[in-house]
Amino acid sequence: MTQEKLTPALFIGVQGNDYISFGSGQPDLPPPELVFKILPSYRDFRYGLIQGQVPLRKELAKQFKGATEDNIVITNGASEALDLTFKAIAKPGEKILLHQPYYYSYPPILENNYLKPVFTQTIKGKIDITDFDKKVRDCKAVLINSPSNPTGTVQEIKTLKEIEKLCKDLDITIVSDEVYKDLIYVRENYMLHGDHVITINSFSKTFAMCGLRVGYLYSNDPKIVERVVEIKTHSSMNTSILSQEMAYQATKVPKSYITEQTKIWEQRRDAIYEGLVKLGLDLWKPEGAFYVFPKVKNPRKTVWDLFKKHKVITYLGEWFGDDNRIRLSYALDIEKIEEGLKRIDLYFES
Predict the structure, then answer these.
(1) Can you name the CATH fold of 41-250?
(2) Average pLDDT across the chain, whole number
């Protein structure tokens, strides 16, 4: 592997051997203790319902006004929820609007379904509603991610409401990726809503349950739900019922669990943001999630040299649609963040 052929696959799963990884967006905090308590006695390993186990769907439906378990589909993480959604709502060749920078899997998910990604620009990670309005009009759907991976940006409520109204008037579907909705430092989450909104979420980020692969989608359109279930029947079938039972236990965790976790993420945010500012890097302060997105000279060489010479893993901004930046996840403890910052400082000094 050379720096010209850098891909995320080079870094995913790399750990130990003195590496400091600011790469993968995988929470290092432990899942709620409650999710483990079922394991010694759990014995149900039959096929489950394709749409998902009823107790979990009933619990998730409480988040959405007027919803029932029939509005929810349980999926193998948010990634499958996104894939199934676009399979269900769009035809090959149709356009889907993404705000740029974007999560690096979004374009491949669309392209694998023969859909065409269209990009609206952002200003310091915030959607430019004028550019959005101009580009959305011939699109089938819009994909919104707030808080955002890779920027850590939380979109303004005013902007989100304008997007709701505009897309409703134009009969354009909004797919709202809410996987970081519980990790916001600046305000309460504003959940996009309406008959034209499909909500995507998972248990991976809020509850640190990435490997269990439990995601879900919500739609109040029964035809969309039916179509998603039909497709899933012939692809992955049911999501792991053991994972679903553990996710159901996670829904019983008091809100204080999430509040305490968010405090930890905010402390880490402050540590890495202030550290990178002291190094003279240009970046905006994250408002949610657990990523920073600094601008650097020659990002490709920076990512490669940090990895090969200093055992520090970072991600190329070009994977997320910005050739001038690198992404760092602060999903690691303060001591490792501080050590990683020392190595980055040493790299820039050299």
Answers:
(1) Aspartate Aminotransferase; domain 2 (3.40.640)
(2) 95
